[in-house]
Amino acid sequence: MTTELYAKGLAIFEKIAGATTPEVIEKFNQIHPDLAKTVVEFPYGDILSRPGLDLKTRQIVTVASLVALGNALSQLKAHVQGALNVGWTEAEIKEVILQMAVYAGFPAMLNAMFAAQEVFEQHKK
After folding, report:
1. Closest Cα partner for 106 from 67, 61, 73?
2. In angstroms, what CA-CA distances link 36 with 18, 82, 104, 111, 125?
3. Measured at the alpha carbon of residue 106, what is the angle toward residues 101 and 112, in degrees to the nearest 5?
4. CA atoms within a 13 Å half-sphere pointing along the CA-CB vector of 43
5. From first to last of its 125 residues, what are the pLDDT tens digits of the chain?
6. CA dist 42 to 39, 49, 60, 71, 125, Å?
7. Domains and CATH numbers, the chain
């Protein structure tokens, strides 16, 4: 059964994940039957749908946060693609990642830049 919160979250998830949405949701469901519901409802339905920041701003904040974590390259790649999907340019994303060298350290920035470059190359195909 689809809840209103799930539907709201899914609409935002689709804006970020784009055409990969069904595949990603299916992967979540294969891992655990409640994983897709949890991921869609909490971060997307509860948090990213809040007023106060637009989705484009929220997406670049997510990219910067994942760079700072330094240990979430899979999620970083997904959100770099999401940043492109909501209107950020490759140059803008690179600039944000570069700035994170000051706050997250040079190794975290380098790893993120290489991960982002993989996404940019795939996006051009």
Report:
1. 67
2. 16, 17, 30, 28, 28
3. 80
4. 9
5. 578 999 999 999 999 999 999 999 999 999 998 999 999 999 999 999 999 999 999 999 999 999 999 999 999 999 999 999 999 999 999 999 999 999 999 999 999 999 999 999 998 87
6. 6, 10, 19, 21, 32
7. 1-50 (no CATH), 54-125 (1.20.1290.10)
